[in-house]
Amino acid sequence: MKLQSPLGLDICCLPFLRDVFREFVGTTLFLFTSLSSVVLWPHLGDQSWDTSTPDPLMAMDAVHECVPDPLHVALAFGASIALTCVCLDGVHLNPAVTLALVVGLRVSPWQAVLYVGAQLLGAITACGLLFGMAPVSAKDKLGINELASGVNLYQAFSVETAVTFQLVLCVLAVTHPKSPFFSLAPAALGLSVTLGHLIAIGFTGCGMNPARSFGPAVLTLNLENHWVFWAGPCAGAILAWLMYDLLLYPRWTGLSDWIIEFRQVFLTSPSKQPTNPQSNTEI
């Protein structure tokens, strides 16, 4: 996908609109399947079974509840992101990833606005579907990100920054066309998402993706501390871009060179823009 002109001359073309639609579908699929693992489903029921039966499953005289543990949730999110990336190659699914690609001059700001809009709409759609299917007792949560008891805002921000940093760094590394792990990108990204959840679930429920936090917050009308789940991932994404593009595999000698190229690509007339910008890196 090529960088677009500041006037968005190609934004209305069919291929780009199809990309935006794929962001919507991908985010809906990813968040519906993954957030389903977080919902606390109801009791199986109060039933008195005949304890004389040799079948242990029939000897249950207790109420059971499906309560997901951190490993359960982490694996669900990791598997979901991996399979979604296999089915819809090139989607971002995460506003923080899109931000990193914008500052890396791989996606234009004008594209990013529509991508992020599609991601947020997909998040609301996914949570709306889940809201309709979830039991009444679970409708007030829907996997909303919340600070755990004893965790302050600074700690939550730091954790969200750290887990998003490793995710975006993985995105930039494995999705580069010349990466030896390019063909394994979906699996690597799934592992990265799983790792992030194993780290952050105990602190914040693991946002790592503003769209993932946005959907449940909107459906439950609970925006308490919601800014943390935007600020942390966005900070982590920018730090990962700085690490990858300026330190590990420098594309510019410094920020001044980046500013010059940013102005050349996005803030000048189309005739003065580069004809062969660097290949876009996406997930």
List the main descriptive attributes of the protein structure presented here.
single chain; 283 residues; mainly alpha; Glycerol uptake facilitator protein; 9 helices; 57% helix; globular; disordered N terminus; disordered C terminus; Aquaporin-like; glycerol transmembrane transporter activity; ammonium channel activity; Aquaporin_transptr; transmembrane helix
Describe what you observe in this structure.
57% of the residues lie in helices and 0% in strands. The protein is mainly alpha-helical and 283 residues long. The protein has a single domain (14-42, 63-272), classed as Glycerol uptake facilitator protein. Helix 4 crosses helix 7. The chain is globular. The model is unreliable at 1-9, 43-51, 56-64 and 270-283 (pLDDT under 50).
> Could you tell me the radius of gyration in angstroms?
21 Å
Average pLDDT over all residues: 83
Q: Distance between termini?
A: 12 Å
Number of strands: 0
CATH hierarchy, class: Mainly Alpha
Give me the CATH architecture, please: Up-down Bundle
Count of DSSP-assigned helices = 9
The secondary structure category is mainly alpha
| Shape category | globular
Fraction in beta strands: under 5%
The biggest beta sheet is recorded as: none
CATH topology: Glycerol uptake facilitator protein
Question: Which blocks of ≥5 consecutive residues have pLDDT under 50?
Answer: 1-9, 43-51, 56-64, 270-283
> CATH superfamily name?
Glycerol uptake facilitator protein
Helix content: 55-70%
Transmembrane segments: 24-44, 71-91, 112-133, 153-174, 181-203, 227-249
Family: Belongs to the MIP/aquaporin (TC 1.A.8) family.
Protein name: Aquaporin-5-like
Pfam families: MIP (PF00230)
